[in-house]
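Hey,

Quick one before I head out. I ran the complex with zinc ion overnight. Inputs first:
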Amino acid sequence: MTIRNLSLIMILLTLVVAGCQPKSEKTSLSPQDSLMLAKVNDFAVVTLTTDLGKLTEKEKQMIPLLIEVADIIDNLYWLQTLGDKTAFLDSIKDTITRQFAEINYGPWERLNGNKPFVEGYGEKPAGANFYPADMTKEEFEKWNDPNKTSQYTLIRRADDRSLKAVWYHEAYKDQITRAADLLKKAAGFAEDAGLKKYLELRAEAFLTDDYFASDMAWMDMKTNTIDFVIGPIENYEDELFGYKTSYEGVVLAKDQEWSKRLAKFASLLPELQKNLPVDPKYKKEKPGTDSDLNAYDVIYVTGQANKGSKTIAINLPNDEKVQLAKGSRRLQLKNAMKAKFEKILLPISEVLIDSGQRANIKFDAFFSNVMFHEVAHGLGIKNTITGKGNVREALKEKYSSFEEAKADILGLYMTTRLIEMGEIKDITVEDCFITYMAGLFRSVRFGAASAHGKANMMCYNYFEDKGAFERLPEGTYRVNMDKIRTAMNEWAAKVLMIEGDGDYQGAVTYLDANGKIRESLQADLDRLKTARIPVDIVYDQGLKVLGLN
Ligand SMILES: [Zn+2]
């Protein structure tokens, strides 16, 4: 090699190295950009894959269609929440801020009390884009319309400024028609009769906003490998009344092996319901025994399910009529769960859990706690015992927080009970409590913005007041085994009673006083920030990473 060539190579090499510099190390980054970049990096990137070898050719042909439907639904979620996705994102010139806005599905930081981070945006409207921005609660309550509280209507202003209810399928007619067509096409690839029927009925439901028959068909579907959660489903985004549901799409592949392991617990539900630590009048209802519990790999996630925090378990359907007739289905998102355990929970424990208890933090315990959170949604009480109708209606916008609180604490209760009954053998009661505590730290970092966050905060504060754990001088936390069980039982009873009594005022008062992060905890949570532990995960997903393009 000549000297001349060598210097040319050196120049090229210098150029290549300069071109490879990560953005964060460029000195030109403003403090504002650095902050945004740190916020984006708070989300650990997780690639969504599954074992394609376990899928049939037709299943592999169906997946791209389902992904297309999920993408349509993603745009509808943007419309329900804020407005046109492309127009909004294009209005953000800075690429890092834009990336963060995509993670949050809007200009409000969902894991930080919905604080606005894009210039020109104020507080997040409680009613999202479901209601007119200038509508007051009083105006809505005075207005007489049979469809106003429907989960599937938008509230808009008519030409004379009066309120009107518009069905989702009318408001989003073009997108809905296209999605329904694709669902029918996907049904053509379904080899499983149950899946075929569900996809066909779901397409009809899209066009009518009557989801009952398709929800029933979804519950009847037992032997499918591919699953598709799709439609307007959860009501978390409507923080004004909790009536309106948001669109979401989740494409899944069932893990048949893990599912077998989970199946046996369903038969134990009635006995667990009977033994709940609360007065018998709050546990008279029978939980559905037809319910099933399965583990899945998440393949593709959009809409409500993809914004900010990623879900690790799904419990559906929400329709009480279907629940009473068929029970409900619990989907444990194993790959998402494992990712959160490894990328978030373990690093948090290193900072906040007493070193003597860290060995008790186990994936199986985390898996069980989360698994039974979902089971516990079906336990307790759905209709108030005070004549106030069902719990959802009685507790209005506070319902989600208490329902999540109930599921969380009864989930822990059930895991410990099943260990003592000898049904779960690979973990101990200590593992469950300590892993649960570490899990609380993970969850309360979400702040008080989401229903889950509020639920976890109420539980954390209750545990603190009852001495279920203590903070050691070195800044770590140790679970008190002799007190945490009593705290768990009493907190469970309290939540079950608020639900059963349909005590809306009690729920408001309790949440106001106990749903916030206290100063001492905030100081310790800030240490997690300093340690740069991811707050959540973001998905690298699609046909390419799946190996299907
Ligand atoms: Zn839940």
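The chain is about 50% helix and 15% strand.

Talk tomorrow,
K.
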